[in-house]
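Aggregate trends can hide what the representation actually does to any particular protein. The sequence in question and its structure tokens are set out directly beneath this paragraph.
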Amino acid sequence: MIQINHDLTPASLQPDIDRLFAVSGKKIHRLQNRWNPARGTPVFTVKGEYTSRGWTEWTQGFQFGGAIFQYEVTGDEAFLDIGRRNTVDLMGSHVTHMGVHDHGFNNISTYGNLLRLMSRGRIPFNAWEKNFYELALKASGAVQAARWTQLNPELGYIYSFNGPHSLFADTIRSLRALAVGHRLRHRLMGEMDRPISLLERLLQHAETTARFAVYYGEGRDTYDIRGRTAHESIFNVKDGAYRCPNSQQGYSPFTTWTRGLAWVLCGYAEELEYLETLPESELAPYGGAGKWIARFRGVAEAVADFYLQYTPVDGVPYWDTGAPGLVHLGDYLNRPAEPYNEHEPVDSSAAAIAAQGLLRLGSYLKRNLEGGKGARYYQAGLTVAQTLFREPYLSTDPNHEGLLLHSVYHRPNGWDYVPPGRKVPCGEASMWGDYHARELAVLLYGAAKGAGEARFFDIFFE
């Protein structure tokens, strides 16, 4: 169980944040100077150097979005140039990519961050540049919403690259693309010019995920544990019936892959923030704001409580809470995670994602006069962040291209590098882990400076 440090504040983490970005800038330049885009997208490191992995191209937005975050904090325009130039040159295919469920990863991280910075006055206003980013985001949201399986009039989901039968837990974070598209007053057009609401599909996907990918320890789930998640949910596309849980990157369908849990925690927490900004008139056709806020909050709290209960004291989880080698680690939940153990790897990327979810959920609850519960989640997020922003997780070796060490990609497929003499992966980084470490640091940087917490949907222009 996480031991929450109640004395931490964003300001107290400022030295750690400054150090992270000092290290981060050198790594961005190193990768930018070395990487040939013709090789594909950098995904994770092997012996300290980023490599590609042909599966789906879901990490390129993290590469350039990380540079945009670096500019946001440091003001160094060399990083803005890396982020902006590569977004224009290399991200276009991701906007119209019909074959993936990853638009919220690739396109909000690039076009979305650039539009957000322009709307905040952090980069100069240019009408044509603004229109370019907005058009990309509108198209991205519509393309993502078109990758759709309808189960019944009230339920449906953005299906994974596995096919129309497959709902992934991590897709909850691609709802960012639909949310931004809706904020830009865009909609998907169907057969016979039928308009399809991006907000409606966002809500239906979120409800389907909440109903089938998250367990609550009651009703259908009386046999299970509240807050546990399934990575993949399988449906019969002929009649819309739910068939079973499954897992691609976790240990089994009946254990909890911690990065999947983290995606759910972060996704519902940030969408809860988004719903809070919508006028009642937009949510009234779907049952009203109260219904959806209660649902999103209930999911976020359930998975947050599970994360706090089943993660070691320093806030970094092992890759799956049911991984078989954990039995050899003894009372592992009551001591810090051990990235160099010989039985099961930890996953720092899951911690970086979950920490942001804890902070956002905590902030939401504190804003809504639930200070005690909100403070618990918020301080837990700060506790995890402090762990990640220091060794052995922060990579300070200038010869290592990764920023956040001890990340895991696909344990069942054996894709992660195992150093000589060891039995499990350790010491390597991933593009999503590095990105979310930077995103977490940006979130806390804004809070420490009194500038407010960065939100993906803050794209208003006066």
In short: The two ends are 46 Å apart (CA to CA).
